[in-house]
Amino acid sequence: MKKYLIVLLVIIVVAVGITTYLLLNKEKELPNKGETLVQETKTIQVNEVTRSVFYAPQYVAISKGFFEEEGLNIELTTGQGADKVMTAVIAGQSDIGFAGPEASIYIYNEGKENYTQVFAQMTQRDGSFLVSRDKTDDFSWQDLKGKTVIPGRKGGVPYMTFEYVLKQNGIDPQKDLVLDDSISFDLMAGAFAGGNAEYVTLFEPTASMTESAGAGYIVASVGEAAGEIPYTAYFATKNYIEENPNIIQGFTNAIYKGQKWVKEHTSAEIAEVIKDFFPDTDLEMLTASVQSYMDIDAWSDTPVLKEKSFNLLQTVMKEAGELEKEADYTKVINNSFAEKAIETIK
Question: Which residues pair with 150 in a beta bridge?
Answer without folding.
Answer: 200
